[in-house]
Amino acid sequence: DIDGDLNAAPRLVEYRRIQLSYDSLAGDASPNITYIKSIEDGDAPEDLPSHISIKTVSITDTDNSPYEPEADVIHYIPETGELILGTNAYEELKNANQIDITYTKDSFKEGELKPEHYFDCELTDPDKPEKIIYTRPENKQEIQYEINYNQKLTVNTEAAEAITHKIGRDIDEILNAVNDVIATEEKIAQVKERLKDSNLPEADRKKYEKLLGQLDTELELKKEVMQEAFEKGNTTSSVGQDQVNAALADLGSRYVRLQLTESRLASQKVDLKELLSNNEGADMVETIIKFGSAEVVYNASLNAASRVVKNTLLDFLR
Question: Taking the model in full, what pTM does it have?
């Protein structure tokens, strides 16, 4: 808009933030932040000091400058899922041993990581199954099978052990940075096309030329942001790949252990069958020989008895 303020030159803003696990959050409910200063102070979390406030600011709110909060203010940007810390707020939280943040997300889109794979789920209202509170699990949710006497094997790998929200958020930032560069390039093309108009008033031409200079500066700054986003994304991708490889290696080692256990049990089964056969089974050759000998003795006994007792019943009836 050439009638707007063209005196403020484009600039980069450095800020300190806490990036939440998700974006597209509910804007009507501010997050709640508690923190533990240090282990020596105990595990009881504390609320933010009274002089620090949390203010919900839309990413499109130009009046409040989302990424430039006052010293004692934390800007909550629901569209991007960010907490932008003012100077004093940052000083208060930077040395905290643990920071817990509760925030609201009304809906999930396809491709987002399921929170139940990363957080403990607590149903707050049985009549409204969609109302669930997610808290970070303290213990791993292992599924174990007994594969041998007094031996258990974990058969599952939790999603959090292989993939984190971080890589997805960094990819989104890369896409946003690229889209910002494309949008600025389109604006520059529109301004240049406008300047080709020979009937353009001289006053408007000067404004468009000034706007073009600002857009060129804006483009250079956004390209710098895009480059930093790619560099950060490369680092995150490398760390993410290492994490996936570690999870695969752990899964592979458990599979090898299961195969070794299966092989050992199969060998023990064969040995047990052989031992059982030796202990309770019969030697067929020896058994047949013994049976033949017993049969010969039995038949000989019958023959001898028949010769000794020659009288029949008729002999007694005479």
Answer: 0.72
